[in-house]
Amino acid sequence: MTTGTGVAQAADNLPPKQPLVQDLQTGNKECAAGDQRVYVSGAPVLSAVLYDPEEDNHPAEANLVKGEFEAWWTDADGVEQRLTRTTLEGHSGSPQRWHMPEGSVPPGAVISWRVRANDGKATSPWSSEGDGSVCEFVHDDVNPEKATISSPEYPENVYWVDGVGVYGHFTMDSPSDDVVAYTYGFIGGPYGTVRPERPGGPVTIPFLPLDPGPESLTVRAIDRAGRSSGQSSYDFMVKSGRAPVAHWPLADAKGATSADAEPGTDAAAGSGVTFGAPAPARTQLTASATLDGSSHGYLTTDAPAVADPRKSFAVSAWARPADTGRNMTVAGQDAGQAAAFALGLNARGETPDWSFTVGGATVSGGAPEAGEWAHLLGVYDAETGKAQLYVNGHEVGTRAGATPTATAGAFQIGRVRDGNGYHDRWHGELGGVRVHDRVVVPDEAAELAHRETSLRGHWSLETAPDGASPDANGGAPLKLGPGATIYRVPDGSCEWWLDPDCTPPPQPLAGDGHLALDGRTGHATAAGPVLDTSDSFTISAVVQLADREPERPMTVLSLPGEHTDAFKVRYQPEQHAWQLVMPHKDERGAPETVVARFARADGRDGIGERVAVVYDDATDKVKLYVDGQSGADATAALPNGWRASGPLQIGRARTGDGWGEHLHGDVDEVRAFTGALPDGRIP
Question: Most buried of 205, 322, 511, 622 (most Cβ within 10 A)?
Fold first, then answer.
């Protein structure tokens, strides 16, 4: 092969620069040779960025160069074959490309190529000369064969196998020896690409089922040229997650000296444990145990609940601390003279938080409050090697890498062990302690912490016999005050669908009637607070303003204390928005949390708006919804709601020593719930 360089030039012309290897590409891949050579599918495209010296620039002339490409290979008969191509002129510094014709090079042969620049007067050295390099590629026109898939934990088409929270390991392999990657996807994710250690080798990926039911894995093998195999599918059936290996409800009879396990080993109780305390409201627990914080306030087993802390496990419980000023342990397990893991309350920082410690790692988060129940769940995932913590069904803190001990000792409730003995004893109530020998997944975490909502009042406002609109649940009726009436379509109204000259009367917001308020004195009240606003609650109503441009704020819902409202929902015309206002104390002038949601007043020209308030005491969040939608401006932190004492108010709010912000408009379908309805149920 000839490697001479033509450098003939005019006296005032400098030759183009030698193309650099880093400026050469085969397709979209960098120039390479030998074992690193490029594999391409389809017609090859060779490209090079070519330069002419800047000194050759002339005001009247463009600085142009063209590329002289050369490719060669040895055919099946051992004869060298060669192709050349000179591109059209292009500007210095721009790519020059050779689109090689389809079929111009044989599949499977190693093709070498190089390039040099020509400015019309001189040529550069070849890109392969000196410190340069020849580029090589192989044209691959054969797709790899389909991948095979196997899993020891989840065999294909078997009804049903293990379950949610238990990892499966899926091995992908292809008979083709040039496969360098596998793309994969499970139903709903995850999706990804993995690469074997060597071309043609297998790859194994982990998969954690999050839901029971049919599942499928699809895989494609990708070769060095980027060619894809056909799709392989692997179908398997996932059972629901395994039940706990140990469960202590702690709802034993008063006077009991041990806690029954369902299943697991019964836990002996110290003399500082008293059974028969109240359970967290709206849960399946019927009672709990009180631990007095002394050296006698604990429960313990004579066997471990987690057989091997190096494998995946989870520990959970309902906890209500009597105070938050000291470290306290909910549950844990011994490991010789130390603890394998512990779930509890950490008071070492500026503010107390919940914590889960395992294998030298601690995850912390949440905000414990004295006298308030919280559900805690610590999870160790052996596949990822990380510990994580859930508080009230929501993951908190940052997952931490852990190295658990292999030692497994007695399970402890209410205390933790170190070299100096037991300490950090629990003071308060505990219930529903569970241990799983697997990962507990997010949906299960939310279910364990779930508190049922219950409808406390539903006023359809269809009728008001004796001036009171009944509650559909049989509770306190809404008593109509002066300026409040129930609107129904008048009897004898014309039938507009039969009479084109008829002007139809307004229709109720919902059903056969609604509450109409005059904006001066109109209101309605339901006896009793109806809701405990210090705990989670939801309240909603359909409301329609009578004016397109209201002149003042108007309240649709409020629940008063002695001096102010625990909350009120009002329309604020200056902001063209519905507002939720929640004072922090039952005091006049107390600081307020205010959130808002934009909405135009329609002046009774429409179907009204659905407003709803959700206070979640477990997450210390309050949200305002309008027509099923909330947002960042309509969401706020509210650590401590206080309990209202007055009757539910429709159409007015506390102002000074009396009432004001009377609503001019209509209200319908008022509903009040104990508990925080989830986002999906609000619309």
Answer: 622
At residue 458 the predicted structure's pLDDT band, cuts being 50, 70 and 90, is: very high
- Specify whether the CB–CB gap between 513 and 488 falls below 8 A: yes
Burial environment of residue 498 by CB neighbours within 10 A (0 to 12, 13 to 18, 19 or more): exposed
Give pLDDT tens digits for 303-315.
Answer: 999 999 999 999 9
What is the amino acid identity at position 673?
F
Strands in 29-30's sheet, in edge-to-edge order, are 29-30, 24-26, 45-49, 95-99
**Closest of 616, 620, 622, 618 to residue 597, by C-alpha:** 622
The token pair at 404 is 């658990």
Q: Are 446 and 655 in contact (CB under 8 A)?
A: no
Strand order in the sheet with 203-207: 148-150, 168-173, 203-207
Beta bridge partners of 256: none
Non-local CB neighbours of 10 within 8 Å, separated by 6+ positions: 121, 122
**Percentage helix, strand, coil, to 5, in the chain?**
5, 45, 55
Give pLDDT tens digits for 620-652. Answer: 999 999 999 999 999 999 988 899 999 999 999
What phi and psi values does residue 634 have, to the nearest 5 degrees?
A: -110, 15
* Cβ-proximal residues to 628 (8 Å cutoff; 6+ apart), any chain: 610, 682, 683
pTM for this model (two decimals): 0.83
- Give 387's contacts (C-beta < 8 A, 6+ positions apart): 356, 357, 358, 359, 361, 362, 363, 378, 379, 380, 381, 399, 400, 402
User: How far is 288 from 269, CA to CA, in rounded Å?
Assistant: 13
Residue 344 Cα to chain centre, angstroms: 25
The b-or-e profile of 250-260 (16+ CB within 10 A means b, else e) is bbbeeebebbe
Using 50, 70 and 90 to split pLDDT, how confident is the model at 1? very low
